[in-house]
Amino acid sequence: VTVVIHLxxxxxxxxxxxxxxxxxxxxxxxxGPILSTVAVDSDGSTEYSRVxxxxxxxxxxxxxxxxxxVVIKSPFDAETDSxxxxxxVTAFDSGGLSGTANxxxxxxxxxxxRPVFETDYYDVMYGVNCxxxxxxxxxxxxxxxxxxxxxxxxxLGDVPFHVDEQGRIFSNHIFTVDSHSQxxxxxxxxxxxxxERTSDAVLVRVTIPSSRDSVPVVNRALLAVSIREDTTPGSxxxxxxxxxxxxxxxxxxxxxxxxxxEFILHGNGSLExxxxxxxxxxxxxxxSVVAVADNFTSCxxxxxxxxxVNEAPGFSSNIYEKEVNEGTVLQAEFxxxxxxxxxxxxxxxxxxIESTMFFVANYNSSTRTGMIVSxxxxxxxxxxxxxxxxxxxxxxxxxxxxxxxxxLVVTVRDQNEFYPEFSRNNYSVTxxxxxxxxxxxxxxxxxxGGPVFGRVVSYSISSAFSVPFNVTSDGHVYxxxxxxxxxxxxxxxxxxxxxxxxxLESKTPAQISVVLTNVNDNRPRPLRDILDHVVVEWDRxxxxxxxxxxxxxxxxxxxxxxxxxxxxxxYGMFPFxxxxxxxxAVVQTSSLGRxxxxxxxxxxxxxxxxxxxxxxxxxxEWPVSVMxxxxxxxxxxxxxVIVGSLRFQAAVQSENRKILSIQxxxxxxx
Length: 670
Description:
Largest sheet: 4 strands, mixed
Shape: elongated
Strand order of the largest sheet: 2-9-8-5
Radius of gyration: 64 Å
Number of helices: 1
Helix content: under 10%
């Protein structure tokens, strides 16, 4: 059996453009295809892999062909259409899946507009004595530079006029008004843009007035005027009049043709100061003025001379600051200012200073600069800061002083010329063992005057061997660990050096002696097991031989151990004692009780005699336990013998009192 399986495609992939963003550049006024949009569908069957294209929105300029080509159906205009110009293209497969691409078109401007003058013609009356006749103006409708820029104007024909790049037409010479009748010049002017396109010619007609015309001419005597340099802005300082006697004042108006920021010429001929003038900066001005009456004009120039006024001198700075190393002579520069000209009598300035330590030197009257110099070298330790006042006056009339003196602030920089010094060269202190504390505070100074070199900033211990001490930056000497009188050294000798801020150390160190004092800090301790169990025969003779000897030591130096028996209660006559406190020997002083008796007591072991009232006595109790026993000893004779008679006594030492054996010897004792 043959089984045939047919695999049916499913629409699982959407069309994909090779790039999501497409760009193109076109010139305005141009149509036709500009780019091709291509999308691919990865489905395996033609049913779902076939792709169609369309614009997301209808467009007046763009047409999209079935194969994805983008065509300009209506050309762009750079002056009216926005650039960049954007739209979207969508690709669809037959299953309804889609993909989108963004298209951006950049529109280039072309020089498709000619310059156009703002008016069809210019008809002007020539102004007497005026070189500037009229200004023509053209514009260009193109969008981009240089096509929209007017780069020049040209006068057509052989006429006594010329035009500059701004469109200002000037006469080649000044025409005189001596004819009894007017005469006219006519010529054409063209404008050229940055793309070298030329405008249509515009007509310019210039009429030269005759001697019979009422041309206003400014009185020549009023064209030269002076003004003080201290004149307040807003003040009217001059009036213009025409020389035509038959013209009424109100028939003439005046204006400035130059862009002057210093002066304002009102229509009635009054000249006003707009901003302050300064003789030292500019001693004179020349401005063009136009007088207008009816349709006639005349041009002339007003010459304004600025007169000098004596002004008070000043300093270039209110405060001068100077730092100088001690041990050197001060040389501090200063500079004066005076609005008056140095060549004039008003501009001569003389500085001076009131001081017995400083004087003015090397003053240059031309540059108005000088120096403040000290008579001698400055010392920071004597004085670190100076504040001086500098005055100045000029030689003008009237003589003027500086409105306020300048201040010179001098700071003398300290030099590290002095070593730190201790207030004492030797220190002796005692230190109890086991203590951890500050021993002493060192005091040292530095004779330098500055805050760096004149301050002791640190200390250091100097010793041939290691010492258990340290010193803080402010001079506190302290022990770094508790010291033990029994194991450590009894005396320490070392030196300490001091350092200032410039790391200059004291020439003479401080010698320090620390003596360690003993403290009763060790309790007596036994040399063997502290619990003593002693067995004693019940019939033991009283003897000074110890039943037990206690041995203890005290680790404190030179300390002696003392033993005191602490006699218990409840025993009646207690049969033990400790006769010598310096020896721990316990002896029997009376008969013992029956066998089986127990004596429990303790011995106080301490490091001070009881006769000494010492608050620091250290002690411990040594318990002692004594058991009375009976052992089966052989009989023996006592040593008791009476001379001259024979008597013996058998000492029996057994529980049943039976005589086990007797050995007797006879002795005679005195």
